């Protein structure tokens, strides 16, 4: 069934920007700040990239003899070696010009360390759960029939999976108000998100903002969906309209690959920042 989705990828109703949905969102202001910073380029100023462990047990990235720092001036220290290697790989992959907008893991580390809006975990969880009220897979159309059928065929299985997985009720609706999410459901997800550490929660919130969906994000983090599947499902209605009316091919392809890259980086960040810094040591001892 999912293979039929290759040519039908996204929901145009969620193309509205977060500025319109949450004009006062501090999370959005933070995102825009770092997006603006990441959009710049500069000439590469180093030759070698390496990883070292600091005195506190955290890992640092070295550019030649210089320690990598965040935009806020803090030493970029990550909780485990796996994440440090992944970040170092981003810097090592740069050629003559540093393209910061391709370094999503570094950006997420910067956000976690600088925390420009000084949010705590509860505030981050509240921001993430707001997307549940406007979740991509919960908003349905009444027409045309082809799109109605596509949404039912492709979104319903994922919605049923997450309801069974977390023993919650979410539902869907074609009303402009969307479905009414029970408080019990919100509380279940709230308790689940509390199990994430601050770094992992930073990554998960980033994924949710990319897909505009708590359902698809958790489906991917729980390995029920691949990155490609989650992205395709998040773009379902948009691709339907493109197939019907046409598109500018290069622009569509660019948007698709960019969304895949950001989503994949966010998912990887969640998993890597959840790893214990002692995993490698334990494996070697065993």
Would you write up a description of this structure?
It is built from 13 helices and 6 strands. 33% of the residues are buried. Mean pLDDT is 84; it is low at 1-39 and 277-286. The chain is globular, with a radius of gyration of 20 Å. Helix 4 (104-114) packs across helix 8. It has 286 residues and is α+β, with helices and mostly antiparallel strands. Strands 2, 3, 4 and 5 form a 4-stranded antiparallel β-sheet that branches. Strands 1-6 form a two-stranded antiparallel sheet.
Produce the secondary structure layout.
Blueprint: H1 18-21, H2 26-38, E1 41-43, E2 49-53, E3 59-63, E4 66-67, E5 77-78, H3 81-92, E6 97-99, H4 104-114, H5 121-130, H6 145-166, H7 183-194, H8 198-211, H9 214-221, H10 227-234, H11 236-245, H12 249-274, H13 279-285
Antiparallel strand pairs: 1-6, 2-3, 3-4, 3-5
Helix pairs in contact: 4-8, 5-7, 5-8, 6-9, 8-9, 8-12, 9-10
Keywords:
286 residues; alpha+beta; 4-stranded antiparallel beta sheet; two-stranded antiparallel ribbon; 13 helices; globular; disordered N terminus
Please give a quick description of this structure.
The protein is an alpha+beta fold and 286 residues long.
